[in-house]
Amino acid sequence: MSQTDFIVHDKADNVGVIVVETVEASKQLSGLIMETGEKVEVKALYAIRLGHKIALTVIRENDPVLKYSSDIGRMTADAKTGNHVHVHNCKTKRW
Asked: Is this model's pTM higher than 0.90 or not?
């Protein structure tokens, strides 16, 4: 793996955060789990912009979204591994 396309803050997280301008659909992405330094790969199913999240596993509707090993929201629709996770399928718990 070369460039880091996304970061994962904690090994328990089920989403990573894209750290490049844009990834294209079907691109194999390289990620880094910051807690452990472990490298991971996920294939993006859709184009995803900088700062948006990518599902690292299958996440079902009503499942928690885990980032920083914290429950930051709930899925409003199912997401496959590699799906874009954002306001169209995830609701934050803050509002």
From this structure: yes
